[in-house]
């Protein structure tokens, strides 16, 4: 048996239970058994808990996508990893897989990468989902290039603060929105060229002033419908808009059509949901490339607060209600 957090029906954080669950079965041919040392908490964990019927999960559901730990055993076809390796990964608990709020988990080898040696397990567990999301949004969807100007909404959030750093590493100029002076100082330290406090300024007007009325090349929406709507008036004709969320049914697309904008979704869950082997391998490669950047001190992931595994419900509430600066992580001690 192993300790784990799980739920048997959807709802608020009150449905989360902490207790004993069955130890994972022997590894599949392409799987690795990981002893988890830390698990990152992401907003999607709360969405899956609240509405599990929208996702391909099996009850009881052990939530969590992000994890870092030590390889305990490997399947027959696994050649890249061996017992004792320190790794990190993002694997949603879909299609009979298990999530990371547990002491042990099987992980598809394609999704794994070696943990950066300079990072603790907690730091590594905070990173995978936001690294992959930001990388796919900027490089995969928007095709970012040096010299472009990028608008990143909610720059102090999990995806936002990584996207700022990746955009700067790509040679872009970065405008980002924040809600406080504290968050403005934080994103400036990460390299943001211009900050906009959306509580005090009109974002579209501020963007146009800073770009001499030309607009940005790329806008990344990490917030939701009203922000997505605002993006259309911030992007220059033939530019890119990328969202990580579902647009509202009443979204007005006329400005986007008039400007001939290229619109993209970014959903890092797609490879596992649709069992796309090559896309899963690409996500593992993104983590390997980001590991090099983190080892070189060029990329960092901020941790807002850590909790014990048994405090998962409190941790999810903290993430949903406080909107902290950085990531929330569960520490898993055996």
From TrEMBL:
Pfam families: ADH_N (PF08240), ADH_zinc_N_2 (PF13602). Homotetramer. Keywords: Cytoplasm, NADP, RNA-binding. One of its GO terms (molecular function) is RNA binding. Residues 11-330 form the Enoyl reductase (ER) domain. This is NADPH2:quinone reductase. PROSITE patterns: QOR_ZETA_CRYSTAL (PS01162). It is found in: Cytoplasm. GO terms for cellular component: cytoplasm. Its main location: cytoplasm. The keyword Protein biosynthesis does not apply. InterPro entries: ADH-like_N, ER, GroES-like_sf, NAD(P)-bd_dom_sf, Quin_OxRdtase/zeta-crystal_CS, Zinc-ADH_QOR/CCCR. SUPFAM superfamilies: GroES-like, NAD(P)-binding Rossmann-fold domains.
């Amino acid at each position: 048996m192993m300790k784990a957090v799980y739920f048997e029906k959807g709802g608020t954080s009150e449905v989360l239970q902490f207790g004993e669950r069955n130890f994972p079965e022997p590894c599949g041919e392409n799987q690795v058994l990981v002893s988890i040392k830390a698990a990152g908490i992401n907003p999607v964990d709360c969405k899956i808990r609240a509405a599990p019927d929208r996702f391909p999960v099996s009850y009881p559901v052990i939530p969590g996508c992000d994890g870092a730990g030590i390889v305990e055993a490997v399947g027959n076809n696994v050649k890249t990893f061996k017992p004792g390796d320190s790794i990190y990964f993002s694997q949603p608990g879909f299609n009979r897989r298990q999530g990371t709020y547990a002491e042990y988990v099987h992980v598809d080898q394609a999704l794994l990468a070696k943990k950066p040696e300079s990072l603790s397990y907690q730091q590594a567990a905070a990173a995978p989902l936001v690294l992959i999301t930001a990388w796919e949004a900027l490089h995969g969807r928007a095709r970012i290039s040096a010299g472009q100007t990028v608008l990143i909404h909610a720059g102090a959030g999990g995806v936002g603060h990584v996207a700022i750093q990746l955009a700067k590493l790509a040679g872009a100029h970065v405008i980002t929105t924040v809600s406080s002076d504290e968050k403005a100082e934080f994103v400036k330290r990460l390299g943001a060229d211009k900050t906009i406090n959306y509580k005090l300024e009109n974002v579209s007007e501020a963007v146009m002033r800073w770009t001499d009325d030309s607009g940005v090349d790329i806008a990344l929406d990490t917030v939701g419908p009203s922000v997505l709507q605002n993006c259309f008036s911030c992007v220059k004709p033939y530019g890119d808009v990328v969202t990580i969320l579902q647009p509202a049914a009443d979204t007005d697309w006329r400005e986007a059509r008039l400007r001939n904008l290229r619109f993209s979704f970014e959903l890092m869950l797609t490879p596992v949901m649709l069992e796309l082997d090559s896309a899963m391998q690409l996500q593992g490669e993104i983590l390997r490339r980001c590991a090099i950047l983190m080892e070189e001190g060029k990329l960092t992931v901020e941790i807002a607060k850590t909790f014990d595994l048994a405090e998962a419900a409190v941790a999810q509430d903290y993430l949903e209600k406080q909107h902290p600066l950085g990531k929330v992580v569960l520490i898993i001690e055996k």
